[in-house]
Amino acid sequence: MHQFRNDYSEGAAPEVLDALLRTNGEQTPGYGADEHCAHAAELIREACGRPDAYVRFIPGGTAVNAMCISAFTDDFEGPILAADAHPTAHETGAIEACGRRILATNDPFGVLTPSEVERVYREHVAGGCHATRPAMLYLSNTSELGHVYTRAEFDALCDIAADLNLAVYMDGARMASALTAPGNDLTLEHLASRADAFTLGGTKAGMLFGEALVMSPRSDRGQRAIERIPYLTKRAGHMTAKGRLMGVQYEAAFDPDLRNEEGLLPYFAHARRANACAVQLAAGLEAAGFEPYVRTNGNQQFFWFDAALGGRVAQACGAELTPAVDPTGHDRIVLRFVTSWATQPEHVEELLTALADL
Amino acid sequence: MHQFRNDYSEGAAPEVLDALLRTNGEQTPGYGADEHCAHAAELIREACGRPDAYVRFIPGGTAVNAMCISAFTDDFEGPILAADAHPTAHETGAIEACGRRILATNDPFGVLTPSEVERVYREHVAGGCHATRPAMLYLSNTSELGHVYTRAEFDALCDIAADLNLAVYMDGARMASALTAPGNDLTLEHLASRADAFTLGGTKAGMLFGEALVMSPRSDRGQRAIERIPYLTKRAGHMTAKGRLMGVQYEAAFDPDLRNEEGLLPYFAHARRANACAVQLAAGLEAAGFEPYVRTNGNQQFFWFDAALGGRVAQACGAELTPAVDPTGHDRIVLRFVTSWATQPEHVEELLTALADL
Amino acid sequence: MHQFRNDYSEGAAPEVLDALLRTNGEQTPGYGADEHCAHAAELIREACGRPDAYVRFIPGGTAVNAMCISAFTDDFEGPILAADAHPTAHETGAIEACGRRILATNDPFGVLTPSEVERVYREHVAGGCHATRPAMLYLSNTSELGHVYTRAEFDALCDIAADLNLAVYMDGARMASALTAPGNDLTLEHLASRADAFTLGGTKAGMLFGEALVMSPRSDRGQRAIERIPYLTKRAGHMTAKGRLMGVQYEAAFDPDLRNEEGLLPYFAHARRANACAVQLAAGLEAAGFEPYVRTNGNQQFFWFDAALGGRVAQACGAELTPAVDPTGHDRIVLRFVTSWATQPEHVEELLTALADL
Amino acid sequence: MHQFRNDYSEGAAPEVLDALLRTNGEQTPGYGADEHCAHAAELIREACGRPDAYVRFIPGGTAVNAMCISAFTDDFEGPILAADAHPTAHETGAIEACGRRILATNDPFGVLTPSEVERVYREHVAGGCHATRPAMLYLSNTSELGHVYTRAEFDALCDIAADLNLAVYMDGARMASALTAPGNDLTLEHLASRADAFTLGGTKAGMLFGEALVMSPRSDRGQRAIERIPYLTKRAGHMTAKGRLMGVQYEAAFDPDLRNEEGLLPYFAHARRANACAVQLAAGLEAAGFEPYVRTNGNQQFFWFDAALGGRVAQACGAELTPAVDPTGHDRIVLRFVTSWATQPEHVEELLTALADL
């Protein structure tokens, strides 16, 4: 059966693989100083509507988070983020390995809010040099639990960040999913116009590896961060020798000639289909009486199961356990189902059908 | 014209690319916990003749050096290495970013010697807790300037390391070239029997990316380093989500069914051909009256040129400038020519012919 | 008026100052390798009833916390501690500067509990190499809000730590106060028999500077941590050149010939008097109708005040604001009053009298 | 016999000790935010002739070096310094613990020269983001081997630093000795007018502990470094709770009312006497036929001895072994003799007399 374990289970989407094959024999300079990276960056700038944006490709998500947070912070500064964001829960102290302290809010479900941002900010600034100095916001879209930030939510965070002189960084490991989720009203152009930095993740969007880090030079702190990124990246071992591989993949994913019938670039077209499969799955599960843990239109879906059944479902389709406390006091568990560029509607049907017999 | 800039200018060797294509649609667990990585590790253990070896795939060379040096050292310990080794010259402080201090010898040309190892060791140990404690040797094979360590040189370093209770780590970003260089007498089996750790580099040996780190569990320090590697790797952002991509590539490169007519695995067959092209180039350059900077049988060749001609050669074939002081007092420069899995004898001939007209 | 700002407002207690004067002209080896440090360590071992204990003097509290936590953790490990413990709130990321990630519980009022320790432990261990590995407990006695750990509380934490194979470190910046607080039933001997490490703080107990770190060699992890401490201390710049100054001060503070009429060493005699003054102050405040924020018998007292009056009190006696949310919804603030070796009962009376007119 | 081991063997000079005694009972704010620190800073600014200088007290020499180097460098930058400077040889990787890489020159005897500065600078800048970026010069006055930098040497280093846009930091753990050494022509005023930062060391100049870091705000990088120092200091555990102790000591050492008959402040008067004793000792040793290792007028003297006699001398007066290779091929050793504020001419006579019988 098709597995719903995660969105990095398979290799590359067809157009990405084709591009890698087609360019395999080329000889190019190393470390990203090649024409493919330059062209891919240009295509991303166009998609963002920001001719001035700085774009750099970094191989993985934990890596790009550590690099970007380092770039926007001084040794004694840190990012404000929601308590269960990726850097706190799944990165083995990657930010702390850079000497930075994370300033976590108490926001539930990992959705950052302006009021918590302000509380954490005030608390730390009051400590003067005896406390870590807040320097930026970190949020991920979609979040760990699939939250798709609305434009209003994003703007409210940008507003408080502007008031407090904090940079805004949006981790977009699943940005393709977020920006194409049903009901989403945040555009790439708007994101690019207000965030200091964000990523357009490739690994979970049909590439072998690679995250595109997009940074705004429209502030002194942005310019300084941009200047720092190449050094930080090399120093941390994240400057890929055959760096053009990322350029080649993003060229394909953002190739205007490969827009689909809806006009979507391949990068977004895959995500929209993955979202549709996820929503189809959620609808099927609810129709079958299962209760969602959180509601989301992204490519991750979270549902409650009785422990025994949940175990069988996980076994069958690879869905992973998500830590959660059952408010009803029963012995239920939450499973996460993830769709990818490779998931098809018939895979969802197969799973929903199979569920009846588990 | 074919470029001799470096050995990471092209994509993947044919059998590696085929394997990536063939497995692209598979769904596997992430982060290297898949069957391909397991199988590739098994093939490497077999090639090394060490069923007990621990094998892990890490995406790049700077990364694997930082991980392995961290794994074998405590916060206040450091590696002894030759002054112009890769970590001192080309990694932007990657080792220091891990909080470790490098203890450099005065060995000329970057070839580590037992006497310098002992001198540096004694000097630091004499300082007690006021000096960084030496914990390991780092050497690269081939070295930055193409040195191929002989078995006797390697054994002498292992002997002094054993006397001083230091771990031995050999950076093998170009190990395939070293072990197949004409005149080399160090075998993979012997290396694996004495080193605490070494790498079998993939990036410069026909893969898209990836270094295989091989570690010996036959000491307490080895076991401790092995236990530490997964955590250190994740923390530093070097645990690739689609980790199976490295397993797939190494499966192909070490596939016994793909041995060539000489019985070489693809990994070594490509390197032998690259070495042969490099030696052919060196012979041609010497025949044309050019003087080598150092003599080596590996896939890098270093030659003196008058500055003007050197500039034209670099322009034509991508050869890079290597910092060197001309002992004759003239204004000469050293160029480095590098061959790869993609270099063919006719590319060398083309270059030698073209040289006459530059 | 005498200031109740903190317990490091004044210089040294009389016997400590005398000892510094008496030994000023002596010539001794540097960096703590002198007879005074050796003798002071011996006196501390005797007071602890642990002839095997390792004792080292480190100049400050933030420093000794960072050193001890580093000594007991690997790069990718961290301490479990209560959310508002000193390292999270007042050390500007000192632990993170060592590359370590702090694992905070949700315990209210900063009092660490076994159930939260276990929850945090399980959550992180479940993440395998994708999460920071818990290695130790950190707790402070008295805590930031003055909690005096009972023997039963301490034992319960030691029990869960033993079950989970975690080291136990008790930060004793205010240990003198804790161990002499009315109602305290934890003895130094018992503490020393179960903790892997603890400090007997000097800075807040009548010395110019200095914290005595006491470590148990009765485990492999303890021995390893002990071996690491001198290197870590020197590397972090915490190895005082005139290290004997700490030895001299602790010799005086733990001089058996200077026991008071109750048989208390000067170190504890000062603390008992400071505690008595603090309790006297608390009783007076309650009698005057003020409400305590938390109840404690240590040398810190926390009371609610209407904002305006609180401001005047702070102005008069140096009491500092402690962040707190008023559960009654009024605009009240919490002030912290701290007594020291220099505080006398008449100072307390003076303050209580003055309060009536503020 | 008086020991010539080092200049931190004794406690505090008389006027410093008096000041500590006189102020012991005062209650002041902690962490250096007190009137004594403010006044001491003002006295230092006056002595430097720089009303705009920023002054901060940090407890030790390794600490202040790490703080100042961190303050002037980004994560991926490093200081250029002579190969055997204190941070490379005696600090257990303190700079690397801050994540910074040291860029060492090949200057012999630890005396930094403009030509080596330029060579190291060019070599690293050529590497772009693949090499650590040079950001500052570090030199110590007097140096490890007692070199007293002349005004011309200092100016030449400042000139090349200005050309290359590098900050200049002079480690003055023994600055009092340097500025009062016979033949010295570098004034404190001139130093303060050109250096970005320097220290006026207290520990080796008659204080219990403390180094005064003096920084220039007359550049953007200086202002940025000044802003960073309090945070970095707290984060590294170097912000002393009873910080006023350093203020009190420097107030005494720089008290204009305590100038000696020559008009020297106590800080310099002690150093001049220590230098005179050292020069007296060197003259006596040369008169007795011993050969200096290096010539210096500072408070450290280095002399060759036959190994056996050297051992007896070291035993008698505490002189320490300095690593050196005997150019004559004999089995000689170098001993270092150090004088301090406590050394008197008769101590020197006693040693010279005793030497005859060893």
Automatic annotation (TrEMBL), chains A, B, C, D:
Q: Could you state one GO biological process linked to this protein?
A: amino acid metabolic process
Task: Enumerate the InterPro entries for this protein.
Answer: ArAA_b-elim_lyase/Thr_aldolase, PyrdxlP-dep_Trfase, PyrdxlP-dep_Trfase_major, PyrdxlP-dep_Trfase_small
Extract the GO molecular function terms from the UniProt entry. Answer: lyase activity
Under Pfam families, the record lists: Beta_elim_lyase
Q: Which family does it belong to?
A: Belongs to the threonine aldolase family.
Gene3D superfamilies per the UniProt record, alphabetical: Aspartate Aminotransferase, domain 1, Type I PLP-dependent aspartate aminotransferase-like (Major domain)
- What's the name of the protein? Beta-eliminating lyase
Give the organism the record lists. Collinsella stercoris DSM 13279
UniProt domain Aromatic amino acid beta-eliminating lyase/threonine aldolase: residue ranges: 5-300
Coiled-coil stretches are none
The cofactor named in the record is: pyridoxal 5'-phosphate
Which keywords does this Swiss-Prot/TrEMBL entry list? Lyase, Pyridoxal phosphate
Source lineage: Bacteria, Bacillati, Actinomycetota, Coriobacteriia, Coriobacteriales
| Superkingdom assignment | Bacteria
